[in-house]
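Reading is simple: the C-alpha coordinate line describes the chain's fold. The lines below illustrate.

. . .
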Amino acid sequence: MFAKKRQMAEEVELSPSPSNKRAFFRLPCHIQIDFTLLRKNEYGRLVSAELHKGTICDLSGGGVKVLTEADMEIKDRIFLTLQLDDDELFLTGDIKTKSDIPEAYGKERYGIVFLDITEIEQDKIVRYLLKQQYTRAVI
Protein backbone atom coordinates (compact mmCIF):
# COMPACT_ATOMS: atom_id res chain seq x y z
CA MET A 1 0.00 0.00 0.00
CA PHE A 2 2.87 2.38 0.79
CA ALA A 3 4.36 1.75 -2.66
CA LYS A 4 1.03 2.61 -4.32
CA LYS A 5 0.80 5.92 -2.39
CA ARG A 6 4.38 6.79 -3.36
CA GLN A 7 3.63 6.03 -7.02
CA MET A 8 0.53 8.24 -6.90
CA ALA A 9 2.58 11.08 -5.36
CA GLU A 10 5.21 10.75 -8.11
CA GLU A 11 2.51 10.85 -10.81
CA VAL A 12 1.04 14.01 -9.31
CA GLU A 13 4.49 15.64 -9.18
CA LEU A 14 5.19 14.84 -12.82
CA SER A 15 1.81 15.95 -14.13
CA PRO A 16 1.75 19.33 -15.84
CA SER A 17 -0.18 21.96 -13.93
CA PRO A 18 -1.20 25.53 -14.72
CA SER A 19 1.91 26.73 -12.87
CA ASN A 20 4.10 24.32 -14.86
CA LYS A 21 3.34 24.96 -18.52
CA ARG A 22 6.06 22.66 -19.80
CA ALA A 23 5.08 19.01 -19.78
CA PHE A 24 8.43 17.85 -21.21
CA PHE A 25 12.10 18.21 -20.39
CA ARG A 26 13.85 20.65 -22.74
CA LEU A 27 17.42 20.25 -23.93
CA PRO A 28 19.55 22.89 -25.62
CA CYS A 29 20.91 21.48 -28.88
CA HIS A 30 22.19 22.35 -32.34
CA ILE A 31 20.32 20.37 -35.03
CA GLN A 32 20.08 21.54 -38.64
CA ILE A 33 16.59 21.12 -40.14
CA ASP A 34 14.67 21.71 -43.33
CA PHE A 35 11.11 22.92 -42.98
CA THR A 36 8.21 24.08 -45.11
CA LEU A 37 6.35 27.22 -44.12
CA LEU A 38 2.69 27.18 -45.11
CA ARG A 39 1.23 30.61 -45.87
CA LYS A 40 -2.54 31.01 -45.77
CA ASN A 41 -4.79 33.91 -46.72
CA GLU A 42 -7.40 35.50 -44.45
CA TYR A 43 -9.87 32.77 -45.45
CA GLY A 44 -7.56 29.97 -44.34
CA ARG A 45 -6.70 28.86 -47.86
CA LEU A 46 -3.14 27.82 -48.62
CA VAL A 47 -1.48 30.40 -50.86
CA SER A 48 2.15 29.23 -50.74
CA ALA A 49 4.55 26.68 -49.35
CA GLU A 50 8.10 27.95 -48.87
CA LEU A 51 11.14 25.76 -48.17
CA HIS A 52 13.55 27.04 -45.49
CA LYS A 53 16.48 25.94 -43.36
CA GLY A 54 16.99 26.50 -39.68
CA THR A 55 18.71 25.32 -36.54
CA ILE A 56 16.93 23.79 -33.59
CA CYS A 57 18.41 25.38 -30.47
CA ASP A 58 16.03 23.79 -27.94
CA LEU A 59 14.10 20.51 -28.22
CA SER A 60 11.43 18.80 -26.14
CA GLY A 61 8.74 16.17 -26.63
CA GLY A 62 6.20 18.96 -27.14
CA GLY A 63 8.02 21.36 -29.43
CA VAL A 64 11.19 23.13 -30.54
CA LYS A 65 12.83 26.51 -30.69
CA VAL A 66 14.19 27.23 -34.15
CA LEU A 67 16.67 29.88 -35.22
CA THR A 68 16.14 30.90 -38.87
CA GLU A 69 16.25 33.76 -41.36
CA ALA A 70 12.71 32.91 -42.50
CA ASP A 71 10.14 35.60 -41.72
CA MET A 72 7.29 33.82 -39.97
CA GLU A 73 4.34 35.00 -37.90
CA ILE A 74 2.59 33.72 -34.80
CA LYS A 75 0.09 30.97 -35.77
CA ASP A 76 1.90 30.15 -39.03
CA ARG A 77 2.17 26.41 -39.61
CA ILE A 78 5.28 24.49 -40.59
CA PHE A 79 6.19 20.95 -41.59
CA LEU A 80 9.65 19.93 -40.45
CA THR A 81 11.92 16.96 -40.93
CA LEU A 82 13.78 16.05 -37.77
CA GLN A 83 16.73 13.65 -37.94
CA LEU A 84 17.50 12.07 -34.55
CA ASP A 85 20.24 9.46 -34.84
CA ASP A 86 18.59 6.69 -36.92
CA ASP A 87 15.07 8.12 -36.66
CA GLU A 88 13.64 10.56 -39.18
CA LEU A 89 10.48 12.29 -38.00
CA PHE A 90 8.07 14.33 -40.11
CA LEU A 91 6.27 16.74 -37.80
CA THR A 92 3.76 19.56 -38.03
CA GLY A 93 3.90 22.57 -35.74
CA ASP A 94 2.42 26.00 -35.10
CA ILE A 95 4.48 29.10 -34.34
CA LYS A 96 3.69 30.19 -30.77
CA THR A 97 6.47 32.71 -30.02
CA LYS A 98 8.79 34.96 -32.00
CA SER A 99 11.95 36.59 -30.59
CA ASP A 100 14.48 38.87 -32.23
CA ILE A 101 18.01 37.73 -31.43
CA PRO A 102 20.38 40.66 -32.22
CA GLU A 103 23.57 38.58 -31.88
CA ALA A 104 22.22 36.06 -34.44
CA TYR A 105 22.78 38.42 -37.41
CA GLY A 106 19.28 38.76 -38.87
CA LYS A 107 17.89 35.49 -37.58
CA GLU A 108 14.90 35.16 -35.32
CA ARG A 109 14.03 32.48 -32.79
CA TYR A 110 10.60 30.86 -33.04
CA GLY A 111 8.89 28.70 -30.45
CA ILE A 112 6.99 25.93 -32.20
CA VAL A 113 4.53 23.52 -30.60
CA PHE A 114 4.07 20.13 -32.27
CA LEU A 115 0.58 19.29 -33.53
CA ASP A 116 -0.87 15.79 -33.80
CA ILE A 117 2.38 14.21 -32.66
CA THR A 118 2.00 10.50 -32.01
CA GLU A 119 3.05 8.85 -28.77
CA ILE A 120 5.65 6.88 -30.74
CA GLU A 121 7.16 10.06 -32.22
CA GLN A 122 7.16 11.74 -28.81
CA ASP A 123 8.83 8.69 -27.27
CA LYS A 124 11.59 8.78 -29.91
CA ILE A 125 12.26 12.45 -29.11
CA VAL A 126 12.29 11.85 -25.35
CA ARG A 127 14.63 8.85 -25.71
CA TYR A 128 16.95 10.94 -27.90
CA LEU A 129 16.96 13.75 -25.29
CA LEU A 130 17.73 11.35 -22.45
CA LYS A 131 20.56 9.79 -24.47
CA GLN A 132 21.99 13.24 -25.25
CA GLN A 133 21.74 14.32 -21.63
CA TYR A 134 23.47 11.14 -20.46
CA THR A 135 26.23 11.58 -23.06
CA ARG A 136 26.82 15.18 -21.94
CA ALA A 137 26.91 14.16 -18.27
CA VAL A 138 29.49 11.43 -18.93
CA ILE A 139 31.83 13.65 -20.96
